[in-house]
Amino acid sequence: MDIFKKVTTNLGPIGQYADKAFGYFMFPRLEGEIAARMQFQGKEQLVWSLNNYLGLGNHPEIRKVDAEAAKEWGLAYPMGARAMSGHTKYHEKLERELADFVGREAAYLLNFGYQGMVSIIESLVDRRDVIVYDSEAHACIIDGMRLHFGKRFVYPHNDMENLEKELARATNITEKTGGGILVITEGVYGMSGDLGKLKDIVELKKKFEFRLLVDDAHGFGTMGKTGAGTDEHFGVQDEVDVYFGTFAKAMAGIGAFVASRKDVIRSLTFKMRSQIFAKSLPMPMVIGAMKRLELLRNQPEHKQKLWNVVNALQKGLKENNMNIGNTESPVTPVFLSGGVSEATQITYDLRENYHVFCSIVAYPVIPKGLIMLRLIPTAVHTLEDVEYTIKAFAEVKKKLDEGKYSSGEVISAAIE
To answer: Does one domain contain both 49 and 99?
Structure first.
């Protein structure tokens, strides 16, 4: 078969909706300044879909530093990969500051979080080792494990009893191969908002020998007393062996980092193929990240504003009989009953009639019969935004319960 024929006729479980969904339900264009209100198809929307947790995306101090760094350095410098010609004292300075902030001996910059995580996993294990991971692990973790030639076992999401069984299973194998065990979890799960059970996982170190890798993309900057992450929140920083954070969420930038013991980071530095064979993180991103980290450390009011909004939003949704699952983080899912048809009707109604823009998820991303409206509160939302959104969601749920979305009358009425 011609490869082109195969790929163009099979767009995958999400791509099958491309003709009807592109530009509105998928790949929508949000325009204007990064803010709680932006433009979508010429209309102002109250936006709850940006991972701009601390509101730094359009912060005046950030904008100023970004612009000055771009003017001074351009977007090309430094040229080449870190190992060849792209290494600078500024990259090293940022790494020291990140390591200090998250309480580790050393850190290493990553150009992108996704490809960085793939390389971290591939660099930590060989065919003798066994990986044990949570069933709701992010796609970057799954892709990293695809490069692993050894065994890997999955445990149901946050199921500690099953994790213990898988660790016993893994131990039996590594005793024969002479390998080790790597457990992978997330700090904050980006879809459901619940937390990885880090305290329970590290407790299992008393029974089993393993190392723990935590992907804390949504926890870095938002969780813990200082914002140092979910492991700080649980008080287990010393027991998390490899910590991963990204700049793409709370820091509103590009790039990521991995932190651990100095000898471990030294090893990763020389093994991570996605970094060794890729151009160094451009200087404006490095200088900008240092400024973002400075604000994160020295201006805790941004995180406090975020949590004020989070607490008000989640409290109000629950008081209005909304199912927000088990979230313990800013990520706020709202679960409703229905399928793809109802999901499209609800999305259209929210955007066109209530001017509320949020991400909507249906099968095959989540089980059939469920719809998830995913809200990302930020420090730049207001309590008035929260109040309005809760009212809108209450009305939407009432329409859903009355069957108005299953009949298709919302979009039909608009077209007529």
So the answer is: no
Tens digits of pLDDT across the chain (416 residues):
889 988 888 877 666 667 777 888 888 999 999 999 999 999 999 999 999 999 999 999 999 999 999 999 999 999 999 999 999 999 999 999 999 999 999 999 999 999 999 999 999 999 999 999 999 999 999 999 999 999 999 999 999 999 999 999 999 999 999 999 999 999 999 999 999 999 999 999 999 999 999 999 999 999 999 999 999 999 999 999 999 999 999 999 999 999 999 999 999 999 999 999 999 999 999 999 999 999 999 999 999 999 999 999 999 999 999 999 999 999 999 999 988 889 889 999 999 999 999 998 887 777 888 999 999 999 999 999 999 999 999 999 999 999 988 876 666 554 44
Does one domain contain both 26 and 82? no
User: Do 375 and 341 fall within a single domain?
Assistant: yes
List the one residue out of 109, 115, 33 whose CA is nearest residue 280: 109
Asked if 213 contacts 178 with a C-beta cutoff of 8 angstroms, the reply is no
* Domain of 374, in residue numbers: 3-58+301-415
Are 266 and 338 members of one domain?
no
Name residue 75's amino acid: L
Tokens of 52: 């701009």
**Degrees, nearest 5: CA angle 282-288-289:** 90
Cis bond leading into 330, ω under 30°?
no
Q: Are residues 145 and 31 in the same domain?
A: no
Place of tokens 């709370």: 250
Q: Is residue 227 one of the residues assigned to a domain?
A: yes
Residues 228, 263, single domain; the answer is yes
In a domain, 73, yes or no: no
pTM of the model: 0.94
Give the count of domains, the chain.
2
Task: Name, in order, each residue with C-beta under 8 angstroms of 196's C-beta and a sequence gap of 6 or more.
Answer: 134, 158, 185, 186, 187, 188, 189, 214, 230
Q: Are residues 276 and 306 in the same domain?
A: no
